[in-house]
Amino acid sequence: SVPSASAMAATFLLRLSNMTGNPNYANAAEGTLVASSSLLERAPTSMGQLLLAMDTYLGPIHEIVVLGDATEGPTAATLADLRQRYIPNRILLCRAPDAALEKMSPALAPIFEGKALLGDEPMVFVCQNFECREPISGEAAARAMWERLAELGHG
């Protein structure tokens, strides 16, 4: 079946809200979820994308920020490993160490604020609502973090 446009919009609005910290996106998504709640109650199995949007809304959402060059070396390997895992409700943002902040969308600036790369290994920040755990560095530490997050996702 094809996901409804409103369910896709709600999903992406929730993701945008978590990437930018702008609650207006979440409020708009909430309106869609409320308006669709009777459909979810009557036929949940026919509303797959809307259920995913609701799951995203209920959270928690893991904001994963990776600093490093995503195209090569340890950062590319770290990201490839993450993409092989099922970690529901995650948002991944990556920035190269030499990325000019003025070329970045100003809306994304808050999630990268105060985060810096130390050395050649990728630096990983796992956050919820812009509150981050202690950053980790390196492929092995990132792999261990992905495993913990995947276990959380399997309930």
- Give the rounded overall mean pLDDT: 89
- Helical fraction: 40-55%
How many distinct helices?
7
Give the SSE order as H and E letters: HHHHEHEHEEEH
Tally of strands: 5
> Which radius of gyration do the C-alpha atoms yield?
17 Å
Compile the SSE list and pairings.
Layout: H1 5-20, H2 23-35, H3 37-42, H4 48-58, E1 62-67, H5 73-83, E2 90-95, H6 109-112, E3 123-128, E4 131-132, E5 136-137, H7 139-153
Parallel strand pairs: 1-2
Antiparallel strand pairs: 1-3, 3-4, 3-5
Describe what you observe in this structure.
The chain is an alpha+beta fold. Helix content is 49%, strand content 14%. A hairpin with a 2-residue loop joins strand 3 (123-128) and strand 4. Helix 1 (5-20) packs parallel to helix 4 and helix 2 packs across helix 4. The chain starts with a helix and ends with a helix. The model has no long low-confidence stretch (mean pLDDT 89).
Question: Can I get a quick summary?
Answer:
The chain is α+β, with helices and mostly antiparallel strands.
Structure keywords:
alpha+beta; five-stranded mixed beta sheet; 7 helices; 5 strands
